[in-house]
Specification:
Length: about 170
């Protein structure tokens, strides 16, 4: 378990990985109530051991990569992006297989209206839905986008230690 400063209040102590409003943060015991606890924050050695297992097993790597994974060693941000032409790709692949929207919806255990909304670009599929549809139709709806990370907030220090969310709010108000 990692010791450090809470991303919310700056308190030093044991940290937990907590999902707060779609963001994973490292927070103290008091602040973990503000989100869904994923588990205790791991040390760099624990993370390196886990990453070694993932790298050696491509299937795990694909299953576990989050939409915005960060490779801190190389300072590269890896993002998954939904292809802009997803609606056209879904419709063309479905029609090539001679299927109606209703047929595809039944096969994928989705609502027909959802398939219709995807094909007409009224709604974007989530990464899970895009993966299911893409796998069934034999198409790729998600692209990886790699970008060099210019500056990490972890490198910015304050008088009290590493930058916290509270510090960010103070900086924005100035």
């Amino acid at each position: 378990m990692k010791m450090g400063s809470c991303d919310l209040c700056g308190k030093k102590g044991r940290l937990y990985d907590v999902k707060i409003e779609e963001t994973i943060m490292q927070v103290c015991d008091n602040c973990k109530q503000h989100g869904k606890v994923i588990g205790p924050t791991r040390t760099k050695a624990e993370i390196a051991e886990r990453n070694a297992k993932i790298i050696n097993n491509p299937r795990i790597m694909l299953d576990r990569l989050s939409p915005n994974s960060i490779n801190k060693k190389k300072k590269i941000v890896i993002s998954k992006l939904l292809r802009e032409d997803f609606a056209k790709l879904i419709k063309e692949a479905r029609e090539q297989r001679g299927m109606k929207q209703e047929d595809l919806a039944k096969k994928l255990k989705m609502k027909e209206s959802l398939i219709h909304n995807f094909e007409t670009n009224r709604k974007k599929p989530g990464f899970k839905e895009a993966e299911i549809i893409g796998k069934f139709l034999g198409i790729s709806l998600v692209e990886n986008y790699d970008e060099e990370k210019e500056k990490s907030f972890e490198t910015i220090k304050t008088d009290s230690g590493p930058l916290t969310l509270g510090d960010m709010i103070k900086i924005k108000k100035k």
